[in-house]
Structure formats: structure tokens, C-alpha cells
Amino acid sequence: MDLFADPYFKGPLAERLRPTDLEHYIGQTHLLSPGSSLRNALVNKRVPSLIFWGPPGVGKTTLARIVANSLGKPFRQLSAIQSGVKEVREVLEFARSRPGTVLFIDEIHRFNKSQQDSLLGAVEKGLVTLIGATTENPSFEVNSALLSRCQVYRLEALSLEETEHLVNYALREDSDLKSRDITVKELGVLYKVAGGDARKTLNLLEIFTDVHADPVVITDEAMQEVAQSRVALYDKGGEQHYDIVSAFIKSIRGSDPNAAIYWLARMIEGGEDIKFIARRLLISASEDIGNANPNALLLANACFEAVSKLGYPEGRIVLAQTTTYLATSPKSNASYLAIDEALRWVKNQPDLPVPMHLRNAPTQLMKQGGYGLGYKYSHDFQGWEGNQEFMPKEMSGHEFYRPTDHGKEKEIKKMMDQQWGDHYGRKK
To answer: Model's pTM, two decimal places?
Structure first.
């Protein structure tokens, strides 16, 4: 039986209310207010290829359909999860006889480079108006060549006021809901659970009205019972995933264990991969703490091993211990800065020859050629008297690693001052 041919099949509320024009589109006023560039492009029917970037459920697909309607062009939709180059080529073949076809690719960031490259020619020639939707920062996930041919617009989650507008619109316009006796008293819990996601808001509204007989009164307490428990707003595959991880690491770097624990809890509650969190702690131990507290890396590594064996829920304790240890440790990024500076130097300078006294001399011929001549075996000396030049002569005295005055690195700095004096600029 074809459900869509069944007169009793209504489809979900979110689909029944999907707008087909800007007049009924709710949200994104920063992009669609009168006089805005996107609105002007729609009015003048001169719309470039677009990338819509934003969290789930904020109207990216709907807005793409509205663009196609406003242009009067055919609309074709692909999912980057289910489609590949073959499906893209089929749409491009369709577009050859219908130039300007609007091609909407959901989750375009999941296309690999070759898949994204297959779109370039058609976009350049105007064969298709490409609209890509992504929850990821397109600067990192979309090829620069393709990105340069698109206008990027960032969509935002609905505000509480816009959520209220959406609910009232649904109660007023949907044929089923407007026939019911429904009163809205509170929307706080609905907004928190849906998190500004329009689709989730309408789904929860429909579930709530389906399980209550008239008269229906929407309150926070009643909505909480239906929702059962607050759904943590945490999209492991989306932008917020990276935002929360960023806040977590920056809290550790800033030596705030309370904030770090809060962001850790957000990740745990959101179902984040326990190994992903442990890997971030490993990176932080080296990047942000380094030799100011060398034990931090040891503990972070032990943490990774432990949580890999334990998993949740016990692993949360190990994560918390490591997080608070790292947050309260002295900080130094000297090693991190040193390797990055050295890499920049190597990349931008010619390859310099290894000094002869540092070269290996496994054969008699190489020894006769001066390989290894003049090398001092460091263990034969007790300190500065064993110093020799380990850099290429063109780089003599160039300093990459600059120990700080924090934690263990203060001792390292003292040792380097004693060992090298002002050779590496320690007395500058």
C-alpha cells in the first residue's frame, strides 16, 4: 500500500507545515529581512550558488526549496551520505536541458574532494545553482575552489520568540491542530529540549498533542513528562561538537577546573566518544602543559588506556581526574611553539648540510673524508666544556625552544642558562 496515496496518511507536522515561500518562513531574520543581500537576490531572481551553514533543524532544506520556487527552476536534492559522483552526474545531465536547475546537496561536507570537484564545471558554467547544506564550518570542510564560487550564509537556531511564533503558527494553520482545544501556558521546557531546532519543536508539539485529550494545556511540567528527560543539545557530527570541545580545552588551558568539568559533563551527557575526549586530553597535556609538568602527559596517556578498558560510566571518573589535574597544572606551550617555528624554518629555508663533525662515519672512506672529525662524545664531559655546535653553521645560536618560568620548566631554563650561557640568547 502506498502511504502517500492513502487519504488518511497525513505525514508529520513538520512536513505538513513546511513553507514554500518567504512569507511563511520563520527564523533567519538576519538573512531575510527586507534589504538584505539574500532577500534582494531572491527578489531580483539573481541567486548565486550558496552554502547554508548551521545546526540541524533551522530550515536549510526549506530555504533551498524556496530559492528554487522563487527562481522558477527545477529542484533536485541529493544527500551526500547516500549519493556519489554517479548521482551528481545524473543531475548534471538533467540540467543540461534545464540550465539553472537548483541542485541541493544536504551535508555537502561529507562529499570527498573528487565528489566536490565534480561540481565545479557545472557551477562555473551556470548549469546548476548549487545549494549546499552543512553543519560544519565550510572553511574546513568544503574545497576552497568550490567554496570560492559560493556565497556562504550562516543560519542560526530559533530564538525563544521565534519558537513561540512557530508553535502559534502551527496551532493556527495546521488543519488537525486548529480543530483541537489547545492552550499554551508555558514553552520554556519545549524550547530547552528542542534547542531552537524547528523540526524538533514541531515533532515534540505533535507528540504532546497526540498523547493528551482536549482540552490540552501546554505547561513546562506536562511537557517535561512527555519529553521524559532533557535531551542534551550536542550534535556529535556538527559544529557544536567542536565548539564544546574548544571550550573544554580552553578551560584547561586557562587553569579553570570548574569550567573544564562542566564542559566535560556536557560531552559525556551528549554521548561523546570516550576515546575522543581522552585524545584531546593527551594533546592538551603536551600542547598546553608540556615540560612545565611532564607528568601531565604520563597521566593523560594512562587516562587514555584506562578509559579504553573501562568505557562509560566508570570512565567518567578517570576523565574527571585527568581534566582537573591538567587544569590545575602549571602551563607552558614552549615545546609546541618550538616545533612549529622549526617547521616554518625548515619549510621556508634551503636544506642546510649537516656539520661534518656530526655526520656518521661507518666506513673508513667516510672517516678519511672528514666525517665525524672533531666530534666530542658528550658523556666524556661534565658540563659546558663539552659544548659544541649542533646546528648548521648558518643557524648557529638560533633559538627555537624557550623555556618559561612555570613549573618544571623553570629548572630547565636554569640548566640551559648554565649549559649554554648566551649562545642561544638566554641572556637577551
So the answer is: 0.55
